């Protein structure tokens, strides 16, 4: 799975949680919570959905570190490479 594949899944899942967000307009290096106005429950729902779709464990304790699109993609990519 490529980084673009991961971004596509992230786009899909973020669209389910916050349908008003235009993923393509998000800056991948800026905090998602601020750009997409996500609350803590939205973030947990997003991480859970990514776990279910991609099979990568994402501990709740990592939520703060996975604040940007780039950080989420890098984390998932690094974990999937170990599968």
Describe the fold and architecture.
By secondary structure, the chain is mostly helical. It has one domain: Non-ribosomal Peptide Synthetase Peptidyl Carrier Protein, Chain A, CATH 1.10.1200.10. The chain has four helices and no strands. Helix 1 crosses helix 3 and helix 1 packs across helix 4. It starts with a helix and ends with a helix. The relative contact order is 0.19.
Structural class: mainly alpha
CATH level 3 topology: Non-ribosomal Peptide Synthetase Peptidyl Carrier Protein, Chain A
Order of helices and strands, N to C?
A: HHHH
CATH architecture: Orthogonal Bundle
InterPro entries: ACP-like_sf, PP-bd_ACP
Domain Carrier: 1-80
Protein name: Carrier domain-containing protein
Organism: Brevundimonas subvibrioides
What distinguishing features does this structure have?
Non-ribosomal Peptide Synthetase Peptidyl Carrier Protein, Chain A
What's the short version?
It contains 4 helices and no strands. The protein is an all-alpha fold and 83 residues long.
């Amino acid at each position: 799975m490529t980084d673009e594949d991961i971004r596509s899944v992230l786009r899909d899942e973020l669209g389910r949680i916050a349908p008003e967000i235009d993923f393509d307009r998000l800056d991948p290096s800026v905090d998602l919570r601020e750009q997409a106005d996500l609350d803590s429950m939205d973030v947990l729902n997003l991480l859970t959905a990514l776990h279910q779709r991609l099979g990568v464990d994402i501990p709740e304790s990592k939520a703060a570190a996975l604040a940007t699109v780039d950080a989420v993609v890098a984390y998932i990519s690094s974990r999937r490479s170990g599968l």
